[in-house]
């Protein structure tokens, strides 16, 4: 692998099988957020780079990939900038669309052979996902930390490109095929076997603009986060899975940067890019020193995490809160355990997250809750929202914000497939609500805000909040609500208090401050 700047040593440990931690000494750790960002903060700190979960979404390099000209190219021969065929939802139906390749890489992993009734054979990692009538499913059930996830079973049907074909993307010599309703599959795309292959195998994958591509005729999900590793001169394949960069000296470097005369003690946010409480933090324990550096310098900060490891540092956070304003945020979309299992498999249960909120508040710290995402027609009734807000208030949350579902590319396709399977009667409504793109219709946002406003007030969760519309007017408002901001009280530090003599000063004096 390429040499890393500041590398101290590379370490492997039994509790992180197959992962190498590259311990580096960083020269700088404060990262500035672009001025146009809608986030209500200007700086972040990330003590880790890479994913210690080591998930992969890869296929055999020989898998034929459908290009926009109707030809097929080996996966290993597809290059960044090529145009391949992906999919997008159009009026409630999935259609084929051209999409650029943003990244391509290879790795070596254990592999599985998926046999289909029509004779097609696909070789993929256990983590790879294919589209079925019941949504995106992995090849194998074993997920991170032993969790079970939706996976292929014998008898499952895979969604084939021939059922979605647009005239512009037909294979040469084949007759036109009209787009099929979501979930339709062609005969023969039925799984007959999923077989483990011995040893490890060379695998490859792509990142595309739509979040998917056509692999040997079936719709295949891509990995979309790996290219974030390349800026460290690490590749986006095997390195992302197995090479985790740990900035050993984050606390010391951060303390030095915070002492610089030019530092103006602006809000520093953690957990908005990589979770500072990922599993590796249990080994390296960098966060206590980071918290002490921020608190000791008079710098306000916030943490977003779903990890219960945060509870370990409650004493440090409590001590820092005596010196500086801090914020802690937790997201919680619903309390129905069955709906949670179907919508958010693999995430902490609603009860576990409510308990996390309670522990944070019992320590005397603020904690804001994001009621997100609200699902139109499923979790947006007055009764459901009021019951959830009642539980959040009972856990002692400082405030709450209610945000409607945001369907980004990739998420959009998965959710529409899930909706077509679980709630087909809502497909047309969602197509209308999200006809303009990723954000729900403005009229729905206004109605949701009008309904939840009195509930937030009644449960004591309204607070002030912070707008998602940027800092000092930067950026477009994107919080999903009209009116109060998208970041609830407790999730970010409160703004500095203006002395009374300034508030009451004449306008000509204010202009000089």
Automatic annotation (TrEMBL):
One of its GO terms (biological process) is intein-mediated protein splicing. Residues 473-482 have a biased composition (Basic and acidic residues). Residues 460-513 are annotated as: Disordered. Residues 499-513 have a biased composition (Low complexity). Gene3D superfamilies: 3.80.30.30, Hedgehog/Intein (Hint) domain. Residues 209-449 form the Radical SAM core domain. One of its GO terms (molecular function) is catalytic activity. SMART domains: Elp3, HintN. Residues 461-472 have a biased composition (Gly residues). It holds the Pfam family Radical_SAM. InterPro entries: Elp3/MiaA/NifB-like_rSAM (IPR006638), Hint_dom_N (IPR003587), Hint_dom_sf (IPR036844), Intein_C (IPR030934), Intein_N (IPR006141), MJ0683-like (IPR040086), rSAM (IPR007197), rSAM_sf (IPR058240). Keywords: Iron, Iron-sulfur, Metal-binding. SUPFAM superfamilies: Hedgehog/intein (Hint) domain (SSF51294), Radical SAM enzymes (SSF102114). This is Intein.
């Amino acid at each position: 692998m390429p040499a890393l700047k500041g590398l101290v040593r590379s370490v492997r440990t039994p509790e992180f099988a197959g992962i190498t931690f590259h311990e580096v000494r960083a020269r700088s750790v404060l990262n500035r957020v672009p001025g146009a960002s809608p986030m209500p903060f200007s700086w972040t700190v990330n003590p880790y780079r890479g994913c210690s979960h080591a998930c992969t979404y890869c296929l055999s390099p020989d898998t034929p990939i459908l290009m926009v000209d109707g030809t097929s190219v080996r996966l290993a021969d597809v290059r960044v900038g090529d145009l391949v065929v992906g999919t997008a939802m159009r009026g409630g139906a999935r259609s084929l669309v051209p999409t650029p390749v943003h990244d391509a890489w290879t790795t070596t992993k254990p592999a599985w052979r998926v046999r289909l009734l029509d004779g097609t054979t696909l070789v993929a990692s256990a983590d790879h996902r294919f589209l079925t009538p019941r949504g995106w499913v992995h090849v194998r059930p074993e997920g991170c930390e032993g969790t079970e996830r939706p996976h292929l079973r014998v008898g499952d049907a895979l969604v084939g490109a021939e059922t979605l074909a647009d005239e512009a993307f037909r294979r040469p010599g084949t007759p036109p095929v009209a787009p099929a309703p979501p979930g339709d599959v062609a005969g023969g795309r039925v799984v007959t076997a999923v077989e483990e292959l011995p040893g490890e195998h060379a695998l490859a994958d792509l990142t595309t603009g739509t979040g998917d591509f056509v692999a040997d005729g079936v719709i295949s999900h891509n990995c979309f986060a790996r290219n974030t590793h390349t800026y460290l001169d690490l590749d986006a394949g095997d390195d992302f899975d197995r090479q985790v960069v740990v900035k050993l000296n984050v606390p010391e470097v951060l303390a030095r940067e915070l002492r610089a005369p030019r530092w103006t003690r602006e809000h520093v946010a953690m957990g908005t890019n990589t979770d500072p409480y990922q599993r590796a933090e249990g080994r390296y324990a960098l966060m206590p020193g980071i918290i002490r550096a921020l608190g000791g310098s008079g710098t306000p900060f916030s943490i977003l995490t779903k990890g219960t490891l945060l509870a370990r540092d409650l004493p440090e956070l409590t001590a820092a809160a005596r010196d500086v304003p801090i914020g802690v945020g937790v997201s919680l979309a619903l309390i129905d355990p069955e709906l949670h299992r179907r919508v958010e498999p693999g995430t902490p249960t609603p009860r576990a997250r409510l308990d996390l909120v309670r522990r944070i508040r019992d320590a005397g710290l603020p904690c804001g809750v994001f009621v997100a995402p609200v699902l139109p027609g499923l979790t947006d009734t007055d009764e459901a929202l009021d019951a959830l807000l009642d539980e959040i208030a009972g856990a002692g949350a400082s405030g709450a914000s209610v945000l409607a579902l945001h369907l980004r590319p990739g998420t959009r396709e998965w959710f529409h497939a899930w909706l077509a399977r679980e709630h087909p009667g809502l497909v047309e409504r969602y197509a209308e609500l999200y006809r303009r793109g990723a954000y729900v219709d403005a009229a729905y946002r206004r109605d949701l805000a009008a309904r939840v406003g009195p509930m937030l007030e009644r449960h004591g969760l309204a607070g002030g909040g912070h707008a998602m519309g940027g800092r000092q007017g930067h950026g477009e408002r994107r919080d999903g609500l009209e009116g109060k901001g998208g970041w609830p009280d407790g999730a970010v530090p409160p703004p500095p208090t203006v002395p009374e003599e300034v508030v009451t000063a004449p306008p000509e004096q204010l202009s000089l401050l």
